Amino acid sequence: MASNDSERADDRIPAAIKILIAGGFGAGKTTLVGAVSEIAPLSTEEVMTEASMGVDDLSGVEAKTTTTVALDFGRISINDDLVLYLFGTPGQERFWFMWEELALGALGAVVLADTRRLETCFPSVDFFERRGVPFVVAVNCFEGAHHYTEGEVREALSLADRVPVLLCDARRRESDKAVLLALVRHVAESMATPV
Ligand SMILES: Nc1nc2c(ncn2[C@@H]2O[C@H](COP(=O)(O)OP(=O)(O)OP(=O)(O)O)[C@@H](O)[C@H]2O)c(=O)[nH]1
Ligand SMILES: [Mg+2]
Questions:
Q1: CB 27 less than 6 A from any atom of ligand 1
Q2: What angle do CA 83, 88, 90 make, to 5 degrees?
Q3: pLDDT by residue (tens digit) across 29-72?
Q4: Which domains does the chain have, with CATH numbers?
């Protein structure tokens, strides 16, 4: 017997794509994955001890007590046809060697920029530009920090016109979803018109 449309919709297996959440130390990567994930996020937070003093640059994020030592992992369904698997990268320089492995198979990335230390997202921007991985820049607007306009961020990071820049609050799910939707659109456009 032929199945009807609603049965077919139930049988559909959504496409799954891997997305990286990158950016500098303390930019809010773990916060974003935790806020937007529809499954309990996996995180690998460790308490920062005195041993990291002089190794990790805490200027601007002095209140930070834990840090990601391997990865964050979460999942979000965009619709019935598309699921995003989110991999948050570790931000500290001593763990950057893991980015290469985490980036394998990633179709796109969010670079979270920290308004208190905008320059800390340079290495992430550089990493994805070199590999030709489409990315968006999401500016996580911390209260009390300088507020940049989209144009100022674009100029400061020397971003190509095609790279979307958005302002966000990593703690808010709707804000994070808007960032991920912009990324999905950008990935689709990049696939249609590769540079
Ligand atoms: N005020 C404010 N605090 C935030 C925001 N996003 C994250 N935080 C806080 O900033 C701190 C650092 O956030 P994390 O999500 O751990 O940052 P991270 O980028 O994962 O850090 P690393 O993995 O150590 O590089 C946490 O205490 C968050 O609660 C934000 O938008 N506004
Ligand atoms: Mg983290």
A1: yes
A2: 165
A3: 999 999 999 999 999 999 987 766 666 677 777 788 899 999 99
A4: 12-192 (3.40.50.300)
